[in-house]
Amino acid sequence: MVLQISSGQGPKECELAVGKLFGALKEEYPDIRQLSCRQTGKDCYTSIIFSTDQDLSELEGSVQWVCKSPFRPEHKRKNWYVDVSVLKMKTGDYRLEEKDLRFERFHSGGKGGQNVNKVETGVRLIHVPTGISVTSTSERSQYLNRKDALEKLKVILMHKETEEKKMQVNNAWREHYRIVRGNPVRIYKGIDFALSDIEKTTNGEIS
Hints:
It contains three helices and ten strands.
C-alpha cells in the first residue's frame, strides 16, 4: 500500500505536522518505507509518500494537530490539519526477465529470397505479464530478429513505465490539494505530538 501525507496549501505549521505524523507512524508501523518527499525546512514537508505492507486505509482522511504555533507564538490558532490519502498505484510489471518472455517463430514474407521463404526467420516476442507483443522480420536470421525484437520490447516497456510514473506523480499532486478539515480520523496534541482520544476532543477552528 502506498500513502501520502500532505500539508495541502496549509501554512508552515501544517508542514511541520506532516513530518511529525510521518515520524509517529514510523514508530507505530516499523515497516514503513519513505518513497519520496518535498521538504521545505527542518522537519517540515509539504508532502511525504511512503509504502507499507500494512493495511492503513483507516488513516485516509484529515489528521488534526492541536498545538500552539511553534513558529508564531502570538498566533491564536491552535488547530492544524494535514491529509492522509491512499494512492492508487498501477501494478504493471515492466521488468524484462527471460522467464516472462515467450518467443514464437513464423515464416517471413517479402524480400529476402528463398532463404526467407523456406526458413522460420520471423520472430514474435510476447511479454507475458503485460501481454505486449512485438515482431521482427527485417533480419535474415532468427537470431538477429530475436535480438531486434528484444530491443523493440525494451523501448516499449521503458516508455510504459515512464508514463505510469508520470501518472502516479500527477495523482499524488491531485491528492495534495484535497484536505477536508473537520471530522479527523486522528487527533494529536502538543509539541510532542501525542495521540489523543478522538472522542474527547472537539474540532475547533477551521482555516
